[in-house]
Amino acid sequence: MMVPAMQVDLERKLITIGVGELATPPQQRVRGIGGFGALRAELGRRAHETYRDEHDGGAERSSELSVALTRQIDGYEARVRGRIDGVAWAEDCAVVEELKSVMLNANELAASKADDFAEARRQARFYALCLDEAGRATEVAAQVVLLSLVDGTRRTISADYDRSRTAAELDEQLRLALERAHLAERRATHRRELAEQLQFPFPEPRPHQLELSDIIATALAAGQPVLATAPTGIGKTISALLPALRYGLENDSPVLFATAKGTQQRLAASTFEALVRKAGCEPGILTAVTLRAKERMCPEGTLQCHPERCPFFADYDRREVEAAAVDQLLAPAVHIDGDRIYQFGEALMLCPYELSMQLVGRVELVIGDYNYAFHPAVSLGTGPVDDRAGGAVVVVDEAHNLFDRARDYFSPFVADRSVAAVVGGLHRTPLSDRRLEQDLIGLCDSVREAITDVLRAADDGERGFVEGRTPHALCGADWIQLASRSSELQLRYGHHNWRRAYIEPADPVMKLLEDAGTLGALVGSEEPELVTYVANQDAPGGRGVGVLCVDPARRLARCHERAVGTVAMSATLTPLSYYAEVLGFGALDPVLTSAPSPFPSEHRRAVVVPTVSTTFRERDGYTGQIAALISEAVAVQAGRYVAYFSSFAYLAKVRPLLSVPADQVLVQMPSMPLPSRDLLLERFRQSSGPMLLLAVTGGVFSEGVDLPGDELIGAIVVGPSLPAVGFERQLMKRHYDEHDESGFRYAMVYPGMQRVIQAAGRVIRSPDDRGIVMLLGRRFAQSPYVDCLPEDWFRFAPTELVTEDPITELSAFWRSFD
């Protein structure tokens, strides 16, 4: 067992290090069947426990025996600590046992050589030396017990312990560790010096930009996370990136800039480049990398990540070292994007994705999707990403999107038809390992039986189903057992495929095992924000069972706690207290800050029109009035406008009643493919005369579209864009009602108003922009909706925006610029 990572006090000349770390020095990350690190560790732990249970029980054997050793190395005192897996005692003799789980079957284990387990044998010898130096026995020996996770086979090999040779070996490893510590200290000192060189890189800061940056810097230094809302155009990226990079360099930690949008990734990269230029750093001194999804980094296009299937993956480690590929990429670079990594890897026949992962541990800034910071299986930003002191400083852009993304991470569903498909596939294409095949089919039978049982119980209870789903308690013990079986089979199946060079990127067997394992683990946690449910044939995914995460705050908080620091920002985090709670900052003493708009308030006129109703029950009676208001508003000042509707259905009802020429109207259609969306947006931008685009709130034309200047002079929003009242929203409402009676606001109002504010934010994007925002619907004038309106829209209170004569007010606004 390993103690915490090496600690070095250079002033006191003291090293504290664990035996495991000393025996297994840093090296390139292991490549293999991939994605099974945590799972393999858990199964290894179980194998160790089983072995100890079988052999413990008397004075002749000790388990988890703590040992320590002190050495003098080059003027330093080295304290070596650890716990031995087991010691077998016989009179004055002691045999140290180092347990090692392996992914080898009986034949492979028998054919393996002692040198194949050099690090485990070294660890056993170091433990033996600790025991020997302490005088715990007259004779000391050491051995490694190999435990197969494939078929349970065991084999014992000698560690060849000799006291004098092992002492010399340990001293050499301590010298190497000390050398790494000195190198790390020099690097940390250099980074602290670089932190002082980083300055605001642009000629003039925008209003409130430096204040926001200072608030973030102060909070990070105090160990507090930051949640910041600031209008579009203030320059949030540089305001967050500058203090985050300084803090990261001061603490020898990288920065992870997490955003789902390619435009924001490019903005972060260009901002970093400006910072480096301003600091006067040569290329290669401060470097950033932008990560791309694995699918977009595969030259073969097959995702057959196996040395026998992919020439880019074959013998990767040796060829990368010989080519010094990572060093070549870093040497002349300030920012390394996915295209450059792809082209470089393709030219050298080295896997571009593996190259990008290696770069992560060598750069100061990593730019990528939310998954790299928060996904439980692939995150790299909140834990250590290399051998630096801690984790990363995480900057979350467009943070309002994190809530739903995080909920999805912890909402697995096991569909009966998926289980049936796996069984059918195994019958059609049997595995070469018939025992594994039978175990997989047996698991599938158990899962289908469990689904049937819980559906029958739900039907007997006459529960009401919504969208084919209803909350239902699952037997934790049963699903924990199924999860345990799934985890074991996941490892065995992955190993079976790896040995046969069989890689299927979307393997239905692996997907089922992952989902069943995750579901069982979550059911066993018994946390109130995880609601178990059963689905019948009317559900979107058909019959099955699932877990719905209605509130990811607890799990996000764990990520924030592991990070060196966290900054979350967006233009639409209103109210801040709501987002602080649901994004996991509530109990972490966060700094909440709201920056005012940097642009002249007289350049925008926002009005709320309460004379129409947009509720589902009443809106059809106001369709004509809504069409008239839209038509009159766009006629006041010629230009480009967008009218946003809560649904395509209501958009279709209003459209024919508009008194706007047909050639001046563009319409977003449902399920519009990307080329069609791009063409529609280009037609809107290039129109020489007035143009009205009809779109849906929360769609592609209300977020991530930049329309500066006169490309957009008005946004009209028809009603709050509340989420559909379905199964998930009902459970969310119930959860938050039980928490503090905030269910309707948390589940419906705040998410809906976020979409409204996001859509309205398309209008004013620069100091020279002028435009109007018109909100149609009496709910906008009522609490809690009106309380969500941005403070920079009004002087004293949001009720100032309410008017029954919007056209007169809009006319006066436009005349003020004549």
How would you describe this protein?
With 818 residues, the protein is an alpha/beta fold. It has 4 domains: 7-180, Lambda Exonuclease, Chain A, CATH 3.90.320; 287-361, no CATH class; 411-551, Fumarase C, Chain B, domain 1; 601-815, Rossmann fold (3-Layer(aba) Sandwich). The protein contains 26 helices and 25 strands. It has an 8-stranded parallel beta sheet, sandwiched between helices. Strands 1, 2, 3, 4, 5, 6 and 7 form a 7-stranded mixed beta sheet that branches. A 6-stranded parallel beta sheet has the order 20-25-24-21-23-22, sandwiched between helices. The longest helix is centred in the N-terminal third of the chain and has 35 residues, at 163-197. The termini are far apart. 43% of the residues are buried.
In short, what is this structure?
This protein has 818 residues and is an alpha/beta fold. The protein has 26 helices and 25 strands.
Compute the average pLDDT.
Answer: 89
Give the strand tally. Answer: 25
CATH architecture descriptor of the largest domain: 3-Layer(aba) Sandwich
- Assigned CATH superfamily of the largest domain: P-loop containing nucleotide triphosphate hydrolases
